[in-house]
Amino acid sequence: MKKISFIIIAAIVLLTTAGCSDFLDRPSLTTLDDQTYWSSENNVRLFVLGAYGSYFTGYSDTWGQVYAPGVYSSGEFSDDYTSSGALPNILVAVPKDNWFRAETRPGYWLPRRGSGPWNFAYIRKWNLLLDRLNTMKEDGKLTDEAYKHWSGVARFFRGWEYSRFVQSFGDVPYYDHQVFPEDIDDMYKDRDPRTLVMDGVKADFDYAMANVRVDDGIDFVNRHVVGVIASRCMLFEGTWYIYHKNDEAMKTNSNIDGYAKTFLTAAQTYAQAVIESGKYSFDTDFRTLFGSLYTTLTGKSKEVILYRAYNKSVNAGIQHCIASYSNGNEAQTASGNLSTLKAWICQDGKPYSSSTVANASSWRLQDMVVTRDPRFEATFWDEPKASATGLYTEKFIDREGPKYSYNGKARPTYYASNTNENGFPCVRYAEAVLNWIEAKAELADKFSGTAVTQADLDKSINAIRKRPLDNVAIAKGVKQTAPLLIAAIPDDPARTSAVEAATHAGIVSSPLIWEIRRERRMEFFMEQYRVLDIRRWGKLELMQGSVNPDLLVGGWVELDLARKTTTQATNLKKTLNNQGYDLLTNANINKVSVKHYTTNADGTITLGDRIYWNGTNATEMRGFLVPISIQDREAANTAVRNYLEPICTDVITQYVDAGYTITQNPGWD
Length: 669
Fold this sequence. Notes:
Blueprint: H1 34-37, H2 41-49, H3 52-55, E1 82-83, H4 110-113, H5 121-138, H6 144-169, H7 184-187, H8 194-211, H9 223-243, H10 256-276, H11 286-291, E2 304-308, E3 334-335, H12 338-343, H13 365-371, H14 374-379, E4 424-428, H15 429-447, H16 454-458, H17 461-465, H18 471-476, H19 498-501, H20 511-523, H21 530-536, E5 556-558, E6 593-599, E7 605-612, E8 622-626, H22 649-657
Antiparallel strand pairs: 1-3, 2-4, 5-8, 6-7, 6-8
Helix pairs in contact: 2-6, 5-6, 6-8, 6-9, 8-9, 9-10, 9-15, 9-21, 10-15, 15-20
């Protein structure tokens, strides 16, 4: 197989048949038999492929959004993202179950955490596979090389699953073997310390890095896929130990610094193996990465390590809706905000407050697309558009798709509804280099590790900044961002602001680490990384408008110029029939509002009062758009307990009914 459409093959967890007569004991012709299934490496591959869609989610399927870019519904729970009405809570009460099955869409809550639910199905799957591989090897059905490869794949997925589990709950029961119903003590054991669990995870990743094939075919798990994901998991864990070392949940650990150093070193080592392979580089423009139709980019782009392709001619059920909500025809219920806009670096490599690029102080989107890093132009529509914040994300579609929102032509099905067929780079080189440089910087800053050099920046952040531009961006005047220089790291005033000081982990001490974090924010906007980042960095307070007022406003709008009048043509040309972005209607009196700003001595800005449209004050309606009826999150969202998910009441009850007890996370009792 040279390419995969990630068909979700039914997960085979237990394959058994039973009978009491010769007739009933005959092998089934239509079902899988655990006694006969494990006969070939190809069957092992099929068993593993059944889980790909749950790990390499891409754009998810049809209307799905779990781990997918949330441009059409709730989106990820992060400070990059703002909606109208009440902003969603991460969790303010102990739920009945940690799947949240009672919600409209099962798994709807996962984007709020970016991690995993309380579910052992996949842990059982990988433990079962390891057991069956041992049997296959003993029976001579696998070569030693194949046995080691597939054992590495199974341990890679088990490690990843447990890492996501720990990211949600901290301590969890750890099983490196199959659990059987008759073993009640094993089934209902209390949670193991996260250090024990993550020791097992690291051992799994170490084995996988040593034994998974370097090349197992296009878009199958290989050693470089393992390296990127393993570095992601270890980076999360290592930084968690740094920025949560005083949390109640960590007090049972007597060697926090030692574990932090161990996990960060592992993150650096895994990512470095990918870098040193020499196979990958940045040779593809940003939009192409997320908008290619029908086919994989793996092997075609040196940045893509594993790609999820969508092609209804291969499987009509595997399509998605994300591009539909990126093409301009569909309104986005939520999108970026002022906090996002402020974070974007300018083309001279400096923050907006100190940049010398012409018009860098302008917040008009038409100016920002040519003054900011090129990823800004590739991510956002270059004028206010139909979203709650006026910022419209078009990152997840090719250059052709958005044209149908203003050329009057019917959209092809691959851009419409839930029938989109553009693919997603599930594992890419940018994450490898950013995980690597952050781990190295943290080791240097906290544990006297080897200092980050200019050469390190050149093969990580600066290599990304040299990513080629496409013709559309070039025609607009977009330019590559200047390199980050170790001798001239910008010192952004935002780093030491009152907002940052109010967060759980406090001010980031290193300007270099601040810039590395900024690079992640620009690179991974809306890809479900940010929620994990702000949790591991101890920054949940950034999700509270009372702490971070930039969260409660959107992009800059000039609503007086966008009005539909008989004497004035709109200044917004990329809309069907030049309809513009007309919010100054009678129906919106006392609903639509903006905020002006003042510029401070250090070049930063401070928001002013909220000004509502009253029917006659059109010229005042230039400012940062305030989403209609916006309400801040509940204060409970930023309680220390919320960095971890509570154990749900269903699980607690199951333990009690069986005569056992499971320990609840601190603060959720």
